[in-house]
Amino acid sequence: HPALALHDVHFAYDPRRPVLRGVTFAVPHRRFVALVGPSGAGKSTVFALVARFYEPDAGAVVFDGRPAAELTRAACRGGIAVVHQNSHVVHGTLRDNIAYAVPEATEEELRRVIELARLEEVVDRLPGGLSAVVGERGSTLSGGERQRIALARALLVRPSLLLLDEPTSHLDSINESALTTVLKDVAQECALLVIAHRLSTVQHADRIVVMRDGRTVAAGCHEELLTRS
Ligand code: ADP
Ligand code: ADP
Fold first, then answer.
1. Mean of the pLDDT values across residues 137-147?
2. Which of 9, 13, 47, 164 to mutate to test the pocket of ligand 2 (most atoms within 8 A of CB)?
3. In b/e form, how buried is each residue of 77-92, taking b as 16+ CB within 10 angstroms?
4. Exposed, middle or buried, 168 (CB in 10 Å: 0-12/13-18/19+)?
5. What global pTM score does this model have?
6. I want to staple 176 with a disulfide (CB 3.0 to 4.6 A). Which of 92, 93, 159, 171 is the partner?
7. Which residues does residue 162 pair with via DSSP β-bridges, in sequence order?
8. CA of 42 to the centre of ligand 2 (A)
9. Long-range pairs of 85-91 with CB within 8 A, sequence gap ≥ 24
10. Residue 197 Cβ contacting ligand 1 at under 6 Å
11. Is 57 helix (H, G, I), strand (E, B) or coil?
């Protein structure tokens, strides 16, 4: 079974105005799937349904072969980590931020996510390495570093499914390409679903699903979609 599958999902916030009108795609385990499409296509709404903030009006959301409707919300959310566009806003120290999700995280666990999110260079810059992370203020970090901290924080919970909403929205092109590479490695650990408005952000995705007007209208790898459009 894929980690996540949506089958012909329909949804409306307001019954007079349908937002999702047939969304079908799957995210296999340890695969990187991207959801792209113009603003208003319904991408964030798909995330809200996967996180079970809302239930579909028709169709099904299925986790690892088990229909969401048969599971409690807590059971569905247990294995899911979500990083929103603005999750990277940090106030405390770097360590506070990374350990926020799992306060009792061991040094070994912190090292693992720091490595996975390629935060070593941030940590190395601090005199004393990881132990000095305790003193580093979030405000001195760049936007790209902050987005990677949000990612590290999400990975600390060892999710089976990781949802990232526009993870590069605040990045310049150099940081964007760095994060793009990180995503490829992250997918070695868990199923990854990333919302993007630019195809370049998700060029390493195993599969790109295109949404338009509340429907999934195409799917393929980066090259396939480029040659078709
Ligand atoms: P493709 O066939 O090109 O992979 P589709 O949009 O047809 O793309 O399907 C995407 C994924 O959604 C498929 O891998 C499949 O597992 C799942 N899927 C689609 N429709 C259904 C369905 N009616 N029942 C079960 N799984 C489905
Ligand atoms: P995308 O993420 O692709 O930009 P959204 O899912 O945010 O698309 O929005 C799809 C449509 O749903 C838009 O018309 C938007 O105005 C509407 N919408 C999104 N969130 C809400 C909400 N909480 N209540 C009512 N309408 C919403």
1. 62
2. 13
3. bebbbbbbbebbebee
4. buried
5. 0.80
6. 171
7. 81, 192
8. 6
9. 85/165, 85/166, 85/169, 85/170, 87/150, 87/153, 87/154, 88/143, 88/146, 88/147, 88/149, 88/150, 88/170, 89/146, 90/138, 90/139, 90/141, 90/146, 90/149, 91/138, 91/139
10. no
11. coil
Beta strand extents in 48-136 (DSSP E only) = 58-63, 66-67, 80-83
| pLDDT tens string 167-184 | 777 677 777 777 777 888
211 Cα–ligand 1 center, Å: 15
> Which atom of ligand 2 is least distant from the CA of 195?
2
Q: Residue 76 carries which side chain, given as an amino acid letter?
A: C
pLDDT tens digits along 6-34 = 999 999 999 999 999 999 999 999 999 99
Side chain identity, residue 140 = T
CA angle 168, 90, 155 (to 5 degrees): 65
How far is it, in rounded angstroms, from Cα 153 to Cα 119? 11
Please name the amino acid found at residue 228.
R
